[in-house]
Amino acid sequence: MPAAKTAFENLHRQLLINTKAAAKKQNAQDLKKRIALLSYQRINAIKERDVSKTSELTKKLEEVKKQTEDPQVEVDPKLLEGVKAAQQSGHSVEHINDIANYLSYQRTYNELIERYNPGLSMTQEDKIRKTAHRVGFELPDKE
């Protein structure tokens, strides 16, 4: 029984780590989209010469840029209830340990891929900037 409890705790921990990483990445993408949308709306307000709307959108844009909250995530307990029902045999406990190990190894693999092959996660603009730098050119800053 203690082996089963340890296996479930390990699985729960790995699921939380993976879920939090995914939620963090998704929040960053959502934040980037919100910033782009507000910037677009602000540019349109400037073109229309609407001063009040421009100042309102500028304030909203500054507030959104300050948001860097960590997501609060939880693993659905119903997900683990089905697994707990099958904890009678030693084979299922071993299987649960294998699942937890797989999640851990997969996360480590992805971290190593990002660390040693950063081109996979780079944006197109970053790739262009690095390529230009490699041949001796410097791209102007956006701002």
Question: Could you explain how this protein is built, in words?
Answer:
The protein is an all-alpha fold. It has one domain (2-134). 76% of the residues lie in helices and 0% in strands. It has helices at 2-47, 51-66, 77-85, 90-116, 124-134. α1 (2-47) runs antiparallel to α2 (51-66) and α1 (2-47) packs parallel to α4 (90-116). The termini are far apart. The mean pLDDT is 83. Pfam families: Complex1_LYR_2.
Q: What is shown here, in short?
A:
With 143 residues, the protein is mainly α.
As for the number of domains, it is 1
What's the Cα radius of gyration? 23 Å
Say how many strands there are.
0
The ordered H/E elements are: HHHHH
Q: Which stretches are poorly predicted, pLDDT < 50 over at least 5 residues?
A: none
Show the helix and strand layout.
Layout: H1 2-47, H2 51-66, H3 77-85, H4 90-116, H5 124-134
Helix pairs in contact: 1-2, 1-4
Using brief descriptors, characterize the structure shown:
143 residues; mainly alpha; 5 helices; 76% helix; elongated
